């Protein structure tokens, strides 16, 4: 539940997505890194989140996970808001963070 509440607090309200690395999840929540995968599996299997793969900023071959919350604005996702628009916002946010 702690991980889900972290996602609720840190999600992008425009895209209903959360882009957090395991290191950031540990930093923000205190959840041990070795327990994150299990927590994500529980949330995913029970339908609370959808895990989407996307290209990572590290290199052209790397992928990163993006987490979409299912029951908070369930119709706000890449299919309804436009993938290009979401990708542009995600890229802009990543540039601001870097």
How do the helices and strands follow one another from N- to C-terminus? HEHHEEHH
Show unreliable segments.
Answer: none
Strand order of the largest sheet: 1-3-2
Could you say what the CATH topology is called? Arc Repressor Mutant, subunit A
> Could you give the count of β-strands?
3
By CATH reckoning, the class would read Mainly Alpha
Distance between the termini: 29 Å
Mean of residue pLDDT? Answer: 82
Count the DSSP helices.
Answer: 5
Care to describe what's here?
This protein is of the alpha+beta class and 98 residues long. The chain has one domain (2-97): Arc Repressor Mutant, subunit A. It is 50% helix and 16% strand. β2 (49-55) and β3 form a beta hairpin. The longest helix is centred in the last third of the chain and has 15 residues, at 83-97. The mean pLDDT is 82.
Helix-strand blueprint:
Layout lengths: L1 H9 L6 E2 L3 H8 L3 H13 L3 E7 L7 E7 L8 H4 L1 H15 L1
Antiparallel strand pairs: 1-3, 2-3
Brief synopsis:
The chain contains five helices and three strands; from the N terminus they run αβααββαα. With 98 residues, it is of the alpha+beta class.
């Amino acid at each position: 539940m702690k991980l889900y509440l972290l996602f609720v607090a840190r999600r992008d309200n425009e895209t209903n997505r959360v882009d957090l690395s395991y290191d950031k999840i540990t930093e923000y929540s205190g959840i041990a890194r070795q327990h994150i995968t299990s927590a994500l599996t529980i949330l995913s299997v029970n339908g609370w989140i959808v895990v989407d793969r996307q290209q990572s900023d590290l290199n052209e071959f790397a992928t990163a996970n993006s987490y979409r919350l299912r029951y908070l604005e369930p119709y706000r996702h890449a299919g309804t808001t436009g993938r290009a628009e979401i990708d542009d916002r995600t890229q802009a946010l990543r540039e601001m963070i870097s």
